[in-house]
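Troubleshooting entry. The earlier prediction with L-tyrosinamide gave an output that would not parse, so I re-checked the input for stray whitespace and re-submitted. Clean input:
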Amino acid sequence: MAFEPLMMSDDFDDDGDAGVAVKTRARTKRPPLYKVLLLNDDYTPMEFVVHILERFFGMTHAQAFEIMLVVHKKGVAVVGVFSHEIAETKVTQVMDFARRHQHPLQCTMEKE
Ligand code: TYC
């Protein structure tokens, strides 16, 4: 046949989008952050807590003393915010150090 009708399936846009270009934005989600919390107890010496805050959280003595007092008075304080891996490392470092010195200090993390 000289003029064979063109079938949709031969060539044309038959996917129902009428030729409209649609771009989906690649979603780059920031990873969640985690708060590291220090808990009060009746037995861990204040100076030991101050030392932990200096050693593992890079605080000056004055900052460390201030945060230690917040925990002592309020029961708990956020001592830093980190990626999941770093937060986990901080918690482990604090818990290991406290256990080695036989203090009952507790440190935990929670999603921000
Ligand atoms: N409450 C403790 C005391 O009186 C001091 C302390 C502060 C303990 C902060 C734990 O996370 C803590 N010796």
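This one parsed fine. The pocket of L-tyrosinamide is lined by residues 38-42, 44-46, 49, 68, 71-72, 105 (CB under 6 Å).
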